[in-house]
# Entry
Amino acid sequence: MGKYTLPEMPYAYDALEPHIDARTMEIHHTKHHQTYTDKLNAALENCPSEIQNKDILDILSEISKVPEAQRGAVNFNGGGFDNHRLFWNNMKPNGGGEPGGAIADAISASFGNFAAFKEKFSSTTAVIQGSGWGWLVYNPTSKKVEYKSMPNQDSPRTLGLIPLLGCDVWEHAYYLKYQNKRPDYITSWWNVVNWDEVENRFSKVK
Ligand code: MN3
# Structure
């Protein structure tokens, strides 16, 4: 039994239909997320105890402290473990729409208005080469929310950024329903965004 276990889904696999199909959600959770979890545990078993005893969020934010032999595996699988648990929770059935409150004000301050943010997020995430994620992050240095594309499973935390909203654009996230049409998946994904969760994350970092 490793340190980390696969988090439970906060809703049923078919709850995000028709935007994200049940089969994709089931494979994504039970196969992909499970594999990141298992491989994170395996990589940590080969790390010194001072690494093993830290929380994965602290490990990711100080990834250079992981011994070089394990750093790649911890970065990839630790990022995959954390990114996906954020992803499940930053979606919900009957989501979408526009945020309110402080996160809405922060988005307008950084991007001009919500429509401009949505356009920037969608168009930039659509053209990520290969596999990766589009993120709305909080930058503690600038004290602003920003857009950030990340390759593979690299966590925004490894750059000192706090992830607020992530869109997984690995093909495994959409290929069964959307095939090569990543922009169509992203357009549909906005309908399941859980803005309450994004606002909740933002409230903790300010
Ligand atoms: Mn994924």
